[in-house]
Write a structure and sequence with these properties.
The chain is α+β, with helices and mostly antiparallel strands. Helices cover about 40% and strands about 15% of the residues.
Length: about 220
C-alpha cells in the first residue's frame, strides 16, 4: 500500500474518531479504531488517545506480526482487534467503543447471552445481526482476546460484558455505521424494556440476511 493511501486512511480514522467523540459515542481516552492494510499490517489508534483529538501522523502503524513501525504505541486493547481479524479475513476495520447504551445493555442480568438485543429494526439486522455477549474479563486480560476469537468467526460484532461493543466491517465507514446502528438499537431496546416490543420474525430476519449480507 503506497504512502498516500496510508495517509488517507490515517486522516479518515481521525475524522471519524472525532465524529464519534463529538456525538458522545465515546469519551475521554476510551475506545479504539483499527484498519487493516493491504500488506497484512494495521493502523491503530494509540494507547490513551482521545478519539476526538487524534493526530493522524501519530496513529500507530503495525506490521503483520504486530510490531510497531510508525507512530505512537498502539492501544492496549490491540489483542481485541487482532483476535477479530484472525477470524474475519474479510473484515477491513474494527471499532471498539464504551458507548453508553450498549454498555448499559451489557450490564443487564437477564439478556440473552447468545443474542443480546432482539431484531427490532431492519437496519440493525442488516448492519449488526446477532450480538453475542462475551463474559466479563478485566481490561487488558489476554484471555479476553481468546473469548472474542471464539465468537468472531460467526459474528461481525460482539458485546463485552460491563465494557462495550467490538464491531468489524468491510471498511472503516461500514464498521462505524454498524457501531452507530448498534448504539441506537441499544437505546431503543432500553426504552422498550417492559413494553413487550414487536421484533422482526425469524422469516423477516432470514430474508434480510439473504438480501443484505454483511462482510
Amino acid at each position: 500500500m503506497n504512502a498516500s493511501e496510508v495517509n488517507r486512511l490515517r486522516e479518515q480514522i481521525a475524522t471519524l474518531g472525532q465524529s464519534l467523540f463529538d456525538r458522545g459515542l465515546t469519551m475521554g481516552s476510551s475506545g479504539n479504531i483499527s484498519v487493516r492494510l493491504d500488506d497484512g499490517g494495521w493502523l491503530m489508534t494509540p494507547t490513551n488517545a482521545c478519539l476526538g483529538r487524534l493526530d493522524p501522523q501519530r496513529i500507530s502503524r503495525l506490521d503483520r506480526s504486530g510490531r510497531l513501525l510508525e507512530g505512537d504505541k498502539p492501544t492496549k486493547e490491540q489483542f481485541l482487534h487482532t483476535a477479530m481479524y484472525e477470524e474475519r479475513p474479510q473484515s477491513g476495520a474494527i471499532v471498539h467503543l464504551h458507548s453508553t447504551h450498549s454498555v448499559a445493555v451489557s450490564c443487564l442480568p437477564d439478556i440473552n447471552p447468545c443474542d443480546c438485543i432482539p431484531p427490532l429494526t431492519a437496519y440493525y439486522v442488516m448492519r449488526v445481526g446477532r450480538l453475542p455477549l462475551v463474559p466479563y474479563h478485566m481490561p487488558g486480560d489476554p484471555e479476553l482476546g481468546d473469548a472474542v476469537r471464539g465468537l468472531a468467526g460467526e459474528h461481525s460484532a460482539v458485546l463485552l460484558a460491563n465494557h462495550g461493543p467490538v464491531v468489524a466491517g468491510k471498511n472503516l465507514e461500514a464498521a462505524v455505521y454498524a457501531t452507530e446502528e448498534l448504539e441506537e438499537t441499544a437505546k431503543l431496546f432500553l426504552l422498550l424494556r417492559g413494553e413487550n416490543p414487536r421484533a422482526l420474525t425469524p422469516e423477516q430476519v432470514a430474508a434480510l440476511e439473504q438480501r443484505f449480507p454483511r462482510d
